[in-house]
Design goal:
Chain A: It comes from Glycomyces artemisiae. The complex is a heterodimer. By secondary structure, chain A is of the alpha/beta class. Chain A contains 18 helices and 22 strands. Chain A has 2 domains: about 230 residues, Rossmann fold; about 230 residues, Rossmann fold. Classes of the chains: A alpha/beta, B mainly alpha. The interface between A and B is medium-sized, with 38 and 32 residues.
Chain lengths: ~500, ~325
Amino acid sequence: MTGPLLAMRGIDKAFLGVPVLSAVDLTMEPGEVHALVGENGAGKSTLMKILAGVHTADAGTIELDGRAVSFTHPLQAQQAGVASVFQEFNLLPELTVAENVHLGREPKRRMLIDRRAMTESTAAVLADLGVEDLSPAAKVGTLSVAHQQITEIAKALSQGADLICMDEPTAALADAEVELLYRLIGRLRERGTAVLYVSHRLKEIFDLCDRITVLKDGRLVDTTAAADITPDDLVAKMVGRRIEAQFPDRLPGTETGEVRLRITGGGNDRVDAIDLEVRAGEIVGLAGLQGSGRTEIAEAVFGIAPFTRGSIEVDGAPIRITKPRKAINAGIALVTEDRKAQGLALRQSVRANARMVLDANARVHSRARLARVSGLLSSLDLVARGEDQEVRFLSGGNQQKVVVAKWLAAEPGIIVLDEPTRGIDVGAKHKLYSVIRELAAEGLAVLLIASELIEVIGLADRIAVLHDGRIAAELPGGATEQQVMAYATGRGPE
Amino acid sequence: MTQRLAGPRLGTTALIYLALAGVLVVGGAAVAMDGGNLFATANLVDMLTRTSLTGFLAIGMTLVILCRSLDLSVGYTAALSSLVAATTMDGQAGNVPLAVAAVLLVSGFVGAFNGAVTAYLGVNPFITTLGTGLIIKGYLDTQYKGPAGDVPAVFQQFGYTRIGPVPVSALVMLLVAAAAIWFLRSTRIGHHMYAVGGDADVARMSGIRTGRTLLVAHILCGMTAGAAGLLLAARFGTGSAEAYTNLYELDAIAAVVLGGTLLLGGKGGVAGTVAGVAILAVLDTVFNVLQIDPFAKDVLRGVVIIAAVAIYARRQLDRHARRPRFAEGRAS
C-alpha cells in the first residue's frame, strides 16, 4: 500500500454559525492505533462523527485508500470501511450476538436466512478477535458492557471495516474488562485494522496508541508519535493557552458561613465515597471529565438517583432525599444539564415556567413569592416579547434565565448548577456569572458543575476534582487548569 | 435492583404458556366447584371455536406491533371482507376461489394503505388506522343497510366443521400461526421486523429498508383480517357490516399483549400470541359456564390484561437497569 489509509485535510465544521472545527488534519496508517485527545468541547467527537458520516464537513477533503470520499449518511461510511463504536451502542438488545453482527446483511440460502452460516461466521470473527467466552447465540441485552462492545467491534469487522472509531470505549468498563479491550485492540492492530481512539485517559493513550493528535478549541495543536511526548507535555498541549475569560470577582460583603450542605461517604452505583461540604456564601466547583460522576452527584443531592450509602445533612440536620420533591422542600434547587428536556416545558409560557416550582410544591408556594417572579425575571435581564411568550422561542441564554428564575423563586438555600452556561451566548454567560456571585453574597451555598475548566477555576472558591466516580482531589480556587486536568485524567499531582 | 437472579430466567413465551396452564387449572377448578366440567366436549369446542376469529386478527396484529405500529382498522376490514366474500360467492360454490382471492386482495390493499401512510407519510399508526377504520365504517354504513350476499353451504363448512372437538377454522388459524412463526424466523423481512420495532435508527443504520418492512407487516395484518372476514361470512352464511360493532381489534391487541409482545415493538412473537388468544378464550368459556354477568365479565378480562402487562413491565424494567460502576456493598 502506498500512502495513508485515511487522510482528512482542512476539515471545517460550524454549528449554527459557531465554528467547532477549523482546518483540522488527520492521517492514519493501516493497523495504526491513533489517539484523538483534547478537553471537553475541543471538537474530538465532531471530527469523529464527520468521519463516521453522522455530520458532513463544511470544508476540507477526506481520502480513504487514496480515493476522495464524501459521506452524507453513516451507511456510506460503513460501506467505505469506516465503522464507529459510539458510547451509545447501535445494538438491538432483544436479538442475539449473531443476529446483531449480521443485521441487515443476513446470509441467505434458498431465499431464506441461513442461521447456521450466521452463527458460524460470527464465531469465526470472534475467534479471530481471540474472544472465547462470548456465544453467538447469547442475547445482547443480557451481556456485560464489554461484551456488547465486542459485539459492536465484531459487527464492524464483519462489515469489512478497515478503520474503527472508538469514542471513550473504556468509559463504562470495569478494570478487568479494560484488559480485554487492550487485547482486542492489539489483535486489531495485528490484522491491519486501524483504530481511532478518542479518550481522555492518558494511561490508556500511552499504553495503546502509536500516534496522538491533540485538538484544542476546534484547532489542530499537534500530531506526534506517542513515544516522543511525555504525559506532562501532552496535558500542557491539551490545556494550552487560551484567551482569558472575564469572571466577576467575589462580591464585597460575601461571607462564608455555616455548612449548608454536607455529604459524608455518599455513594451509589455511579459514584463512591463522596465527602463534600458547601458553606453559605461559598461556591464549590465540581470538575471532572465527561462520565466522571459530576452529574450523578447533582442527581443524588436532588433525589433523582439518590445515594444508597452515606448521609446528607442540610443546614446541620440529617435528611434522606429520596425524590426531587423532598429536595425542593429542603431548600435545594437544581439547574439541570439538559435545559430543554429537563429544565423547561418548552411549549408553555415564560410565566408558567417561572412559576412552575412554586405552583407544584405547596410547601414552597406563597403569594409573596409568586408576586416576586416578574421582578426576578427582569432582574435577570430576561429578553422576551412578554411573559406569555412560549419559552421555545427564546434564545438559549434567555431560556436558561427562565430556569434560574423558576428556582430562585422558591428561595432555596442550596443551588446546584449543572453546566449552566452550556450552549448560551457570551452576554448571557456573563450575566449568569454575576448572578452566581450575587447568590453567594446572599448566603446561598452554590455547587457549580462545568465542563469548561476555566469557569470552575474562575468562579469557585474550592474545586473538587472527580475521577471515575470518586473525588480525586480538592483544590483551592486559584488552581491551574493543568493541576485540575492532572487529577481529572487520573494521574495525580504534578 | 441489585439482586440479579442467579439461574436462567424463564422465557416470556414459556411463562405465558405456564399462565395458560394456570388459567386452565384455576378455571377448571372453579367450574368443578360449580358442579360442571370445563373439559367436557361441549366446553372444549366452545373454547376452540372462540380462538379462531381472534386468532386470525391477532396473528397479523402481532406483526405490526412487533414493528412498533398498530392497526385499529382490523375489525372494519374483517366486516368489509365478509361482505366482499358473501357477495362475490353469491351462493355459487364455484365462486369460492374467486371470492377468497378478492377478499385477500381487498384486505391486503387496506393494509397496504395503512402501511404506506404510516411508513412514508410519517402519520402515527394510531391515527392512520383509526382513520382507515372510520372510512370503511362510513362506506359500510351507507352501502349496506343489512346483511348482503349468500355463502354457499360448502364454504359454510369452514365455519362449522370439526375434526373431533377441533373446529377446522381453529386448525387453519394454527396453520397460519405456524406460517407466521416461520416467516418471522426464516425470512429476512420477517426477521427485520424485530429490528424495525426494536430501534428504527439502528435498523436503518444497518441498511434495513424500514419503510418497506413496515409496509409488508401492515399488508399481512390486513390479509389476516381478511381471513377473519372469510370466517365471519362462513359462520353467518352472509356478509355482515354489523360485525365491526364487536370491537374485534381490541380483543386482538389484548391477545397480542397478553402473549408477551411488547406494545413498543421489537420483542415477542406469534407463539405467545396464540397462548394469549387461548387465555382469553378459556376465560370467556369459564365465564359463560359459570354464567357470570357479562358486565362483570368485561371487568374481569380488563383486570387480567392489565395485571399481565404490569408483570411484563416489571420484568422489562429489571433488564434495563444500568450497569453499576460501584457494586453495592463495596463501601459498607
